[in-house]
Write a structure and sequence with these properties.
Keywords: Membrane, Transmembrane, Transmembrane helix. By secondary structure, this protein is mostly helical. The protein has helices at about 1-10, 20-95, 110. It is rod-shaped. The chain starts with a helix and ends with a helix.
Length: about 110
C-alpha cells in the first residue's frame, strides 16, 4: 500500500521544468471540481431528504391506520367475548329456573301386569 501512495505522490509533484502558473491553475481547477462535487452531493442529499418527507408521512399514516384497526379488532373481540359470556349465563339461568325440585317415584309397568 505504501508503494502505491509513494507512486501517487510522485505523480502529483510538479515536473522540475513546469510553469508555475500552470501548476497553480491546475490546483485551482482541481479545487473547483472538488467544491463542485461536494456541492452536488449536498444538493442531492437535500433533494433526497425533501422527497423522503411524503414517503415518511404516508408510512406514518399507514401505521396509524393499522394501529386503529388493531385497536378496533381487539375491542370487537372483547365485545364478542362479553356477549358470549352473557348468553352462556342466560342459558344457565334459564336451565336453572326450569328445574322443579321435588320427589318422584318411578312406576314399573312390567311388574304391575
Amino acid at each position: 500500500m505504501l508503494i502505491y501512495i509513494r507512486q501517487w505522490q510522485e505523480k502529483m509533484k510538479p515536473q522540475p521544468g513546469a510553469n508555475p502558473l500552470v501548476v497553480i491553475f491546475s490546483w485551482l481547477v482541481f479545487g473547483f471540481f472538488l467544491i463542485l462535487a461536494l456541492g452536488l452531493g449536498l444538493l442531492f442529499l437535500l433533494v433526497g431528504w425533501i422527497l423522503l418527507l411524503p414517503v415518511m408521512w404516508r408510512k406514518r399514516r399507514e401505521l396509524k391506520q393499522m394501529w386503529q384497526f388493531k385497536k378496533a379488532a381487539q375491542q370487537a373481540q372483547r365485545d364478542a367475548q362479553q356477549r358470549y359470556q352473557q348468553q352462556r349465563q342466560q342459558r344457565r339461568d334459564e336451565n336453572d329456573s326450569s328445574v322443579i325440585d321435588g320427589e318422584y317415584t318411578v312406576k314399573d309397568d312390567d311388574h304391575s301386569r
